[in-house]
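Lecture 7 notes: from sequence to structure.

We start with a single chain of 222 residues. Read the sequence below before looking at the structure.
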Amino acid sequence: MKKSVFAVCFCTVLVLICCAGATYATTTYSNWATIASKMTPWTDTLALSKFDTSLGTLTSVELYVESVDDGGIWLENLGPSATTIAVTIKSNIVVSNGSSTLVTCSPTINKSYDLKKYDDSFDWGGDSGVKDLGLAATDTKTVAITDLASYQGVGNVVLSVVTSDASSHTGAANMVYRSDSSADAKARLIFTYEPVPEPTSLVALATGLMGAFGFGLRRKLH
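Now the structure, written as tokens:
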């Protein structure tokens, strides 16, 4: 009798372990979409695949956005005295789902230049000018998505991306200034879900239930 009771208890514990593993295990995966760098301002869309519900039950979604701003600066001091010029190259990348803004990235480049009085040569160089190219800055943001229903099923989630150039400079009035700013946009959806139990888990679960039932039946017959 003691052996039968032990066997039934053992099978019951096995069943509970299988059920717990099937219910509480979570898995994460993500997919990417990219818009290549282009001169700001621009407007475009990102299409990201929705969560495949055949994989299991979706428990959370995060949106990760990354943007790189590439820029250049041209300055020429036309004044009769030396001056310091502060320049900011900045792009605002606003990602929305159509009805509301989800996240904003603002990669920013800050530079300062000490320029001497005008050297009588307008060439973005020499003592009174500068040409600074190949500048870059990156900004990333992650936001939790609360509307899980809109991010699962068949098809894509289409996000709107709107960029603007927020570059600026401060310094002497007799200054010729030019800047270029280009930005890209990369995004991914990060899905966390409870997966559908694997066949091996189902077999173990069935084996445990059959074992518990068999020992109970055997005990009843004897």
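The longest strand covers residues 56-77. Keep this in mind for problem set 3.
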